[in-house]
Amino acid sequence: MAFGLITAFVALAIAGGVAISYVAGSAAVLAFLASGYGNYLAIMPQRIFSQIDVFTFLSMPLFILAGEMMTRGGVTGALIDLAMLIVGRMKGGLGYVNIAASVFLAGISGSAVADAAATTKTLVPAMVDRGYRLDFAAALTAASCVIGPIIPPSIVMIFYGALMNVSVAAMFAGGIVPGLLMALFLFAYNAWCARREDHPGGAGVVLPPVRPTIARALPALLIPVVIVGGIVFGVVTPTEAAALAVAITAVLVFAYRLMERDRPANALRHLFSEGSRAVESALMLTGSIFMILFAAAIFGYLIGIMRLPEAIAATVTNLDLSATTYFLLASAIMFAAGMVMDVTMALVLMVPVLIPAAIAAGADPVHVGVVSCLNLTLGLISPPFGGILMVISAASGTTYLRLSLAILPFLAVQVVLLVLLILVPDLTLALPRLLGLVN
Question: Which of 125, 205, 239, 369 has the greatest number of CB atoms lying within 10 Å of its CB?
Answer without folding.
Answer: 369
